[in-house]
Specification:
By secondary structure, this protein is of the alpha/beta class. It is built from 17 helices and 11 strands. The strands form 2 sheets. The protein has a 9-stranded mixed beta sheet with strand order 3-2-5-7-1-8-9-10-11, sandwiched between helices.
């Protein structure tokens, strides 16, 4: 199979059409030959020649003037533009396009029967990598002020105020068992789906059906147990499903996965955001390492994946059981299992706590369904805490006003 990524190619092209300020940077970073599909090569050439005045009408006129309507139809052009919901991830997709070019070149090199030619070609490719220029700050300083919104909102206004939304980086969401961290993760997932993003969930604990039951139950405000038993109102379920684009949700629900497999899935799906439930179940291939070394290696690799693909990674994690034995049961960053390396690698650490869970059996305690989301670390934001309200029947949270 020839390496290619049609979605990544289309995403880069669509982003340049929607926001022409990207054209100078990415027509220099990429060449026509980086695009595998002929229609994408033509569209790239059109965008480059038209420049900052690019729009669908001018591209159509360009296609007609070059007599290329048979190679690139207007219907396909519209399909390309509609393929992306946001231009935020253009850099991520451009890197995928370049990576696929390198992979195709390697395939061509390994097909060579002449060993001398093969060695020479490999040397030439290495030399081309050496000559890739390191940009001066003047070439990208405009990126600081030119992009009005380069983050994805969480769906919780107070949380966005503290951490400035989801950006490229690693976000740890940790809690003790039964706190509802998967439910909160799915609240984040729902919001990004409503916003039109392509979302990947790596679920190592729950099946895709269980996840969908949670999502639909939360949207329809239906007890998930009724859905499981077939007792829920079908009209309510259909209404809930209509309000969210489930076709943009990708769920990997096998019980084990390696970091390498996560990377491969992200490259295949090209999501805008990734959720992993949870870190402790990611398999580390080197059995010689102890648990701490294994988690440290996984944490470092997850950080690299986020940077390489340019996507936010929200990773669920457990806190130590010793929390329940303390007078103050609110978790701290030091309560993260094998916490040292995770604290260092994470851009944001969020700790979920529900006092109701610990005091539910005390005779004089009245549950209030409140939860605390503690921001223990925020590399580019502020630490603090926000109050949430927990809906136990559909395992969902909302901000307390």
């Amino acid at each position: 199979m020839i390496p290619e990524s049609p979605y990544a190619e289309a995403a880069v092209l669509a982003s340049m059409i929607l926001e022409s300020r990207f054209i100078p940077k990415y027509t220099e970073y990429l060449t026509e030959d980086d695009f595998f599909r002929d229609e994408h090569k033509i569209l790239f050439r059109a965008i480059k020649e038209i420049g900052s005045d690019v729009d669908l009408i001018r591209i159509r006129d360009w296609i007609d003037s070059h007599k290329l309507r048979e190679s690139l139809s207007v219907d396909y052009l519209v399909k390309v533009v509609e393929s992306v919901a946001s231009t935020v991830s253009i850099d991520h997709y451009a890197k995928i396009v370049r990576r696929k070019t390198c992979e195709r070149k390697l395939v061509q090199l390994t097909d060579s029967d002449d060993p001398i030619q093969l060695v020479g070609s490999v040397k030439a490719e290495i030399e081309s990598l050496r000559t890739e220029k390191c940009p001066h700050v003047s070439e990208f300083i405009d990126e600081v002020t030119d992009i009005p919104c380069d983050y994805l909102t969480t769906g919780f206004i107070q949380l966005d105020d503290l951490i400035v939304g989801w950006r490229t980086g690693v976000y740890i969401l940790a809690a003790a068992s039964s706190m509802g961290k998967t439910g909160l993760m799915l609240d984040f997932v729902k919001h990004r789906l409503v916003e039109g993003d392509r979302v990947l969930v790596v679920s190592l604990e729950m099946t895709r059906r269980q996840l969908l039951v949670r999502v639909v139950g939360s949207l329809a405000k239906i007890d998930t147990r009724k859905i499981d038993r077939g007792l829920a109102n079908e009209a309510d379920i259909e209404t809930a499903k209509a309000g969210i684009k489930l076709s943009d949700l990708y769920v990997y629900d096998k019980s084990t996965i390696t970091v390498g497999q996560i990377s491969a899935i992200i490259e295949e799906v090209s999501p805008n955001i990734v959720f992993i439930d949870y870190m402790g179940l990611i398999t580390y291939s080197d059995s010689k390492h102890n648990d701490y070394q294994g988690i440290s290696a996984i944490s470092r690799s997850v950080k690299a994946i986020s940077k390489d693909f340019g996507v936010p990674l929200i990773v669920l994690h457990q806190v130590n059981r010793g929390v329940s034995g303390r007078t103050d049961t609110k978790p701290r960053m030091s309560d993260l299992r094998d916490s040292g390396k995770i604290e260092q690698d994470a851009d944001v650490v969020m700790l979920l706590h529900r006092e109701d869970y610990y005091k539910k059996n005390e005779p004089d305690y009245t549950p209030n369904d409140e939860a605390d989301l503690i921001i223990a670390k925020a590399r580019n934001g502020q630490t603090g805490s926000i109050k949430l309200l927990f809906a136990p029947w559909w395992v969902s949270f909302k901000e307390k006003v």
